[in-house]
């Protein structure tokens, strides 16, 4: 892979904040769909006994019924959907883990995982392995396997209840436990993560990533983006062949290249190049919505904190509702058995 554009670590983290918010939305929507009671469906055609299905659903905290009794007995899409949400969430956690594993290597050195979440090699005493992140990455495949296994189990079953469906429960609980454990371990990993800002700045300063900043600067001076792309691309190729970095580019070289490639002179000053090739200026010059411009990052942080607060409030309301439901149910059972 090659360097693309310069961004900030905060901008990177916000990308996964948004991904995790989508995971949360999927889980909440899944919960809303599956929080329905099948109780009273009997074997598949209901019962002649005077069972009040709505009352039992209410007493158990469900938001409604799986109304059709055949559907209530034979469907397991609730488990498949919950597993799918878990698998997508684990994919995001695995990608985060892979980034941190790569960035903690000697070749990158962007971050350092705390000793509490690392291990040494059984042979090489100098090694520090981010083992917890590797386990999260590995367990993602286990959750994928659970989803695929459940889909395979239900794909060819006859309508009605089949013993095969018992396998879905074990897979579902195991996957939910894996997701919960992975989230719980990532929290302290990020709280104790060391960020090597100097190393990040060093790499950003010594890359060709600012080529797009130079191209956009030239667009602002009257070139079409096609012309700027062609000119800067040829300049970068010449620099690579001569084993020079972009930061060593001189104004006269841009003028000579533009005359040769475009047939006209393009002028920039040394001060212009110094400004363009400064990584901080590269980030602060971005104007589009969602970019790493510090003002835009701060706006996104404030917005996401508000969303997080709202989500915590909604979860708290539902937890308190379920606690009241269980208390009422317990009180009712207690009153019945005390008669």
Describe the structure.
With 339 residues, this protein is an all-alpha fold. The protein has a domain at 211-276: Fumarase/aspartase (C-terminal domain) (Ribonucleotide Reductase Protein R1, domain 1). Helix content is 65%, strand content 2%. The protein has 13 helices and four strands. The chain has helices spanning 9-34, 53-59, 69-74, 77-103, 131-154, 166-192, 197-205, 211-219, 225-241, 251-261, 270-276, 279-284, 294-337; strands spanning 36-37, 64-65, 111-112, 194-195. The strands form two sheets. The protein has a two-stranded parallel sheet with strand order 1-2. Helix 1 (9-34) runs antiparallel to helix 4, helix 1 (9-34) runs parallel beside helix 13 and helix 9 packs across helix 10 (251-261). The chain is elongated and about 95 Å long.
CATH architecture of the domain at 211-276: Orthogonal Bundle
CATH class designation of the domain at 211-276: Mainly Alpha
Strand order, main sheet: write it out: 1-2
Radius of gyration: 29 Å
Distance between the termini: 73 Å
Main sheet record: 2 strands, parallel
| Total helical segments | 13
Beta-strand percent range: under 5%
Structural class: mainly alpha
Helix fraction by DSSP (H/I, runs of at least 4): 55-70%
How many beta-strand elements? Answer: 4
- What would CATH call the homologous superfamily of the domain at 211-276? Fumarase/aspartase (C-terminal domain)
Instruction: Show unreliable segments.
Output: none
CATH topology assignment of the domain at 211-276: Ribonucleotide Reductase Protein R1, domain 1
């Amino acid at each position: 892979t090659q360097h693309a554009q310069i961004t900030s670590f905060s901008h990177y983290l916000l990308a996964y904040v948004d991904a995790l918010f989508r995971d949360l939305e999927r889980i909440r929507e899944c919960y809303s769909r599956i929080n329905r009671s099948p109780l009273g469906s009997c074997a598949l055609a209901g019962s002649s006994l005077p069972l009040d299905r709505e009352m039992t659903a209410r007493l158990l905290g469900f938001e409604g019924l799986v109304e059709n009794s055949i559907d209530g007995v034979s469907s397991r899409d609730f488990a498949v959907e919950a597993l799918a949400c878990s698998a997508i969430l684990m994919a995001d956690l695995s990608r985060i883990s892979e980034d941190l594993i790569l960035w903690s290597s000697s070749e990158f050195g962007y971050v350092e995982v705390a000793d509490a979440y690392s291990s040494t090699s059984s042979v090489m005493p100098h090694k520090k392995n981010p083992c917890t992140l590797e386990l999260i990455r590995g367990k993602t495949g286990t959750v994928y396997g659970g989803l695929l296994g459940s889909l395979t189990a239900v794909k060819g079953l006859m309508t009605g209840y089949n013993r095969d469906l018992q396998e879905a429960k074990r897979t579902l609980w195991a996957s939910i436990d894996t997701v919960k454990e992975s989230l719980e371990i990532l929290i302290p990993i990020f709280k104790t993560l060391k960020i090597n800002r100097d190393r990040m700045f060093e790499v950003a300063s010594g890359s060709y990533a600012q080529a797009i900043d130079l191209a956009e600067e030239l667009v602002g001076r009257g070139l079409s983006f096609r012309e700027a792309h062609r000119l800067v691309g040829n300049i970068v190729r010449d620099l690579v062949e001569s084993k020079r970095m972009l930061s060593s580019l001189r104004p006269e070289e841009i003028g000579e290249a533009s005359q040769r490639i475009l047939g006209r002179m393009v002028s920039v000053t040394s001060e212009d190049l110094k400004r363009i090739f400064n990584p901080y200026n590269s980030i602060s010059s971005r104007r589009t919505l969602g970019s790493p411009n510090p003002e835009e990052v701060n706006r996104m942080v404030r917005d996401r904190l508000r969303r997080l607060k709202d989500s915590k409030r909604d979860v708290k309301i539902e937890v308190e509702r379920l606690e009241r439901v269980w208390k009422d149910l317990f009180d009712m059972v207690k009153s019945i058995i005390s008669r």
